[in-house]
Amino acid sequence: MVVFRQEMVEERMGDCWSRTKDQFDNLEKHTQWGIEFVERYTKFVKERSEIELSYAKQIRNLSKKYQPKKNSKEEEENNKYSACRAFLSTLNELNDYAGQHEVIAENLTSQIISELTRYIQELKAERKSHFHDGRKAQQHIENSWKQLESSKRRFERECKEADRAQQYFEKMDSDINVTKADVEKARQQAQMRHQIAADSKTEYASYLQKFNQEQNDHYHTLIPHIFQKIQEMEERRIERVGESMKTFAEVDRQVLPIVGKCLDGMTKGAESIEPKHDSSQVVESYKSGFEPPGDVEFEDYSQAMKRTASECSLSNSRAESKPDKPTGKSKGKLWPFMKKSKSPKQHKEALTLRLNDFMASKPKMHCFRSLKRGLSLKLGAGSEDFSHLPPEQRRKKLQAKVDDINKDIEKEMDKKDALIKMKDVYVKNPHMGDPSSVDPRLAETGQNIEKLQLEAQKFEGWLAEVEGRMPVKSEPPQRQSVLYETQNSVPSNDNCAQDRESPDGSYTEEQSSEAQIKVPNVEFDDEFDDEETLPTIGTCKALYCFEGNNEGTISVMEGELLYVIEEDKGDGWTRVRRNEEEEGYVPTSYVEVFLDTNGKDA
């Protein structure tokens, strides 16, 4: 029953297309339009593929443009923030997202464009074959029709000639004046014409029968068969286009799960942002370790005019109590951000009290050192021990440096172990190599390890000083000298400790043949010509040579004896005096101080 219905459907389809036998040219135009439609759809998919590739390329370039630079310290610092890590995750997911668009373009090309291009060529060839057969069949039936018409016209013509010959014979036979021979001749001519007409009739009948048979085959068998093939070809074309459109949608659907994962990764990165953690990282990064300065005291200039005679006599008695030590006018402590006195007649005691207050303020010296270090840092002259940084930042930098050196030491140790094993193999198997050839490399590796260990010891010493684990003043000068001579390759002049840092890291004086960074002159209050001389509280001996190029400092020679007029307030500087006119600050670590107990109490 099913087979019967199928045959009926096929018969009806054949009948449907066979009815278009008089529309052969229209069918040819329609099938040509169908091929052009497939080509148009193929071009559409190709342009879509090119758009996907271009979009993927632009997305990749965008992701690459905003990727952090490799081996960039700034980017490494930024990666500790959760927002930067989330942005990096977004860039990576965006790169994968671009890859899925490349997959779409690749699948469109392989599954649709290539297949349709090949199918179009096959479709054109099949269509050409079918219409060639149709044209051939039409040409054959037209030729048969022409032969039939020709035989028909000849038969008609011969019949007319036979009638005329018969009429002429009858006329000649009825005429008494015509000879018997002429009559016989006319009779033979008429008989011949009748025979020719009969032959033409037979030929015409034969051609007619042949044409009718061919015509019947043409319109009932051959042409319907050709049209059936064309119909099947057209249905396959339509079905192929539908499959391609379905594939067009499936290609996008296949990548949706991975695209969803990429979007989920972006969302997860955004949700991992921790504002409080990032803000705490900012605090940790820029924490200086300095103590905030104290309150500024009120300056009562009205008291300067009420100086009593007892204060003057007390000052004179202090000066007479030390007759064996040099006395004279003092410049006072030089300090940044202090304006010069515009009134030289202003009373001495108020200015003295103000100067002593500044000298007793611990954070102020930090300000001076911070000024010098900040300027040096901006000018690109950061010291090796990071003394230009605040204490907390300096500790972090030193710790990172120590970690890097330890990693290098581990690498060199692994390299040394490998060379030792190689040498043992050569000793046991001389044919594999000469053991002595490894010795130069072992010696070089050993030297590298020693250098790195000295470097690590140097930075660990600075780190210990910053963390307060190493008592600097009690350390023997010989060890300090060895420690700091290892870090300087420039020879010192006049046995001075130039290009060396003080043992506590509080002062660094850099001098190079290429460039020398100097702190700009700061305006200090040095117009204290009438100020009374500060009393000495002890003596000191210079352990190192110090040039004192900066304003407010004093140069000393190694082994020189000086007077101490103000001890270290915790900022790493001690105020000393050489004679009446020369006094200033020197690094505390450069001198050995002997305080006078009575003088200190006074």
TrEMBL record:
Domain SH3 as annotated: residue spans: 535-596
Major subcellular site: membrane
Keyword field: Cell membrane, Coiled coil, Cytoplasm, Cytoskeleton, Endocytosis, Lipid-binding, Membrane, SH3 domain
Stored InterPro entries: AH/BAR_dom_sf, F_BAR_dom, FCH_dom, HR1_rho-bd, HR1_TOCA, SH3-like_dom_sf, SH3_domain
GO BP annotation list: endocytosis; signal transduction
UniProt xrefs under SMART domains: FCH, SH3
Annotated GO MF terms: lipid binding
Composition skew (Polar residues), residue ranges: 477-496
One Pfam short name: FCH
Name of this chain's protein: Formin binding protein 1
Originating species: Paramormyrops kingsleyae
